[in-house]
Amino acid sequence: MAGRGSVRASGNFNANQDAEILYKAMKGLGTDEDSIMKLLTSRSNSQRQQIKAAYKTLHGKDLVGDLQGELGGTFETLVVALMTPPILYDVTSLRNAIKGAGTDEKVLIEILSSRTAQQIKDITAAYRQEFDAELEEDVTGDTSGHFRRLLVILLQASRQQGVQEGNIEADAQTLFSAGEKNYGTDEDQFITILGNRSTEHLRRVFAAYMKLAGYEMEESIQRETSGGLRDLLLAVVKCARSVQPTLQRLCTIRCRAVVVELERRPDLNQSDALLQTRSPTPPPPNQTNGHQSTTMAGRGSVRASGNFNANQDAEILYKAMKGLGTDEDSIMKLLTSRSNSQRQQIKAAYKTLHGKDLVGDLKGELGGKFETLVVALMTPPILYDVTSLRNAIKGAGTDEKVLIEILSSRTAQQIKDITAAYRQEFNKNLEEDVTGDTSGHFRRLLVILLQASRQQGVQEGNIEADAQTLFSAGEKKFGTDEEQFITILGNRSTEHLRRVFAAYMKLAGYEMEESIQRETSGGLRDLLLAVVKCARSVPAYFAETLYYSMKGAGTDDQTLIRVMVSRSEVDMLDIRADYRRLFAKSLHSAIQGDTSGDYRKALLLLCGGNDA
Q1: Has residue 335 been placed in a domain?
Q2: Measured between alpha carbons, how far is 351 from 483 in angstroms, rounded to an integer?
């Protein structure tokens, strides 16, 4: 999980300099909260401890004490949490949860179910050192019954390692017999298996249990247990699937810093910004503009290979296709672990070494959807978009889905590149081909998007006016003035549009998407919805596109292939996260359940991991 946090160590770090910035921010009348929050949320916890020591040396005062004296409310609580070493923060949270009247079971559950074995051991040792008390004794003295028993098991931090293949089905059967199959519940069996098996093993057990019982493990726990034990078992299962701690500890340990929200939403104060961080998987700030940019670099599941040798790769592919039979595994593993740029170099090397066209040879050896996917991987991105658009336009009928997907989600520069490449590749004008194959308001908005000339930045004075215009053009009147929707949604910047959507929600009481659904129809409706969704978040838009490509009877393989290939080097990691957030299942599991054979294997390699 290293490197997956939103807060990282600052590269240009100077503890004394930072200590001075904080001192000046609190000196004299008033406090510069912005400087405090921006500095602390852009330093790692280790660096904050160094700043604290430097502050003491330079000014003879305790930094945390000064911060507490200058700040207040939830903002103070957050800042003090940021200044506390992670293990000590956990230890203090546990101590506060146990001591005093009543027990805060939520804190016990969250920390003990989500930390690694080593972290639990460190917490136990730090608790002893900090409070001269045994954590296990304090926990057992303040809890009871099966809830206590599972907490004690978790405190042992002694889960079995790895997957015990021979026990997967047996464990699933034991859990089924202990609950759904039985009158009453044998809680001890749930506690023993869920408290002692490795998380990798448990995920396999959950899948086997689903096949056996017809229910997800969480559903059975909800029905078969109650109270603190139920909440703890559910947390253990969810953390085995994917760790997601809750609000304030999320904001400090695995945090999305408040400063990010304040920079994205300058209209918020610190407390509102804290509340805005409540979603466990909000879109990262560099994605909210909804378009691919340089800030998105590194968010793909496919990256350039570090040890790249085009000639060597060309030879591997040649041998995989030589003689009787084809080694599809070698082909897919190599091509999905090279960037598109590297694949073009392999193609050139193959031609030089063997005098043959690599794509032609691949087509001759492969077949079906797997062949279509491999050929797509071998096509340069802009040419792939251009070919997809050409195929969508020519022939009988128009594939509006392709026009909508590409023209609503690409950046202005990409649209310009696509237009130029289309002219070069087919000696035709893309806009003319689009206008000749579409009509009405749908055509008008497509033409506007092809101009790639959205206004830049946010026009503060026009936000309320644009929201009012959209409201008057739809919900407020009988009939719909589509021209107003097209003009505003087609020409304003994505940053501006997001502010308009918020103002529209306040004014109309509906999300923009709801009004579009009611007020428009057909291709225009679908295109307007795509524009709005991409303005909010392109990865979320593609997560939804993938979901519907596999939903119901049959699979829209063309869409599935197009999205998986075109986004694999751009934002597939974010698409996966949004898919999990929106549909409560992983993209990996959806692909696995809806495809088969080498085609499935290759798609899963492009997916790059399972977020189950």
Answers
A1: yes
A2: 52
